[in-house]
Structure formats: C-alpha cells, structure tokens
Amino acid sequence: MSAADPLQIQKAREVFFARKGLPVDQIGHSILRSWIRCADMGLDERAPPAIDAPSASEIRLLHEKHEALRRISRPELDALYSEAREISGIVILTNARGEILDAVGDPGFADKAAQVALRPGILWSEDGTGTNAIGTALAERRAVVVNGGEHYFQSHQVLTCSATPIIDPRGATIGVLDISVPASQQSGHVLGMVRMAVEQIEHRLFRNGFDGCRTLRFQTDPNLLGAAREGILVLKDGIVVAANRRGLSLVGRTWDGLDQLHVEEIFDTNAAHLASGRLKAQDGREFFAQFEGESLGPALSTAPQQSLEDIELSSIRQALEAHGGNVSAAARHLGIHRSTIYRRIHSV
C-alpha cells in the first residue's frame, strides 16, 4: 500500500468521514491519528478553515519575538530556497505554535500558497488548520509528510508538505521547517532535505556552549566529529543536562533522562576521568570523543563542520562517480532533478 496513492487516500477519506470505520490499512497511522484528533475537535473537513489574517504590525512583532530562531535558521532557508524554486515549492519556518515566520521559494507557487494561507503570521497547528505537515509534526514530535488528500480540509488538498520539528538542547520543540509543493509534484526526496537542514539548525544551537557545563561531542567515526551528525551531550557535575537527537540515539536514551542520567551509566569511566579521545560505552561500543576546547591529539583528526551545501555537493559527486558520470542516473539515485546537479557542480 502507498499512502501517497490518491485513489487509496480518497477511499480512506470516504470510510473515515462517512463514519464507516477507521481505515487503518488505507492510510498512514500518523495521518489517521491526526484525522481523529481533528474530528474530536469538531473540525468540519468540508468547510474552509477559519483564518485570522494578522496585521503588518502583528507580523513585525512576531518576527521580533522569534528573531533568534529566524537568524539561526537563515542559512538553511537560503540553502533550500533554490531547491524549493526548482520543484515549484516554498520553504516555511514556523515557531513552536505553528505560526509561520518565513516563507520563501517559487514566486508563482507562493501566490497560490498564499490563497490557502501559507504566508507569514498564519497559524498552522492542527486545531486551526487540521491535518497538515506543520501541525502534525508538532503534535507527533516527528518528521511528517502529508500528501494531497491526506490533509484534513478539502481546500488544502492542492498541497503536499514535508515537515520536521526543530528540537532544542533541552528537548523542547522550538519550531518547524517545512517544504510545501503542489500535490501534483513528485517530492519523494524532499523530507530528506528537510531533515538534513534541521540537523544543521539543531547542531548550531550548541555553538555557544553552556555556562558551567562541559560539552561532549562523540561518534563512532572520528571524521564525523564537528559535523551535524555527531552526537552531543552537555554535562554538569557528571549529569546529562542537554543533548541533541543524535547523541541520545547513540547511547540509547531519550529526553526523559535529562537531569537524571549520570555519565557513568553511559560510559565505562567516571566523570572525573572523562577526556577527549577514545571512549568506551558500558555496552562495549567504542566512540571517539572530544570535549569543547580540548584537542583529540594528532592520532584522531576531525573533519571541519560542513555546510548543507557541502554535504549536498559531496553526495552528488559520489552519485556521479558511482554511475560513471551519468547525470540522469545520478539524479534518479538521489531523487533530484538533473538541473540541480548541473547547478551544484557548476557553482563550485
């Protein structure tokens, strides 16, 4: 079953909205859970959602309030801007409520998107705008794609949206990054781009350090230290007080452990002897670790932090090499347009 199959989605809608049952085998479970939440809130899928258009002064105040989030996310919005235009879509940044802070991309689609309220200042949480990638990503705290008819409101079926929540070092959701395209557009690779961009944003949240704490960066591959895919744990008196998703995943923990998890429960050493270099976990796995401001030493070099553009360019070059320089084959492998490859290669 493909959740993106329009006929399958329509069948699921007919079953659900006619109250004939729950289409558990016809629609993705995250979408179905969202439909149930929206129905429980009394939303009418046939009625246009109520939109409270903010004034220019309200949008200005919203921007001022969230200037830090907008500033730290700006490199990713700029990097994804060209990609969004390439697929006739727009990149959207929201705050933790789902209020749109920025929307950039294809001008033609931006005009159409504005007609369904994809513009700054509009709230896209589930309670106001039904099932949509932004609101559902906030509700589920995970990456979500909502294709065409999977949107709760009929008027939003012209969209396909891919969104990932932005999580701060303490585990709180502070915003959402989304790419929305016409429902008729092929967009299988979009969620991967959004996830990569969010990793970069979340990684940047650790750049200024934490007062009175030690920041531990670690990975199984020393070349990933300094890159967005490194694990990060912030320690205070041997207790984990902040972390990124990658760090928690590497040690098999969740945000619930913050302020309680002691470093000795994770690594085969005590807090007093933790140092940069090789680090053994309690389960026997070996990591390469580096504390903020400390050197790994000549035997363990680290890679410089990569930008989103650097990562994309590296992936394109690897795909071209794997396919003998065949641009069409490399584009199919990466799920992007040929023109994107030409533009990336020739911009260097």
UniProtKB/TrEMBL annotation:
SUPFAM superfamilies: GAF domain-like, Homeodomain-like. Residues 107-203 form the GAF domain. Residues 307-345 form the DNA binding HTH domain. It holds the Pfam family HTH_8. GO terms for molecular function: sequence-specific DNA binding. InterPro entries: GAF, GAF-like_dom_sf, Homeodomain-like_sf, HTH_Fis. This is Regulatory protein, Fis family.
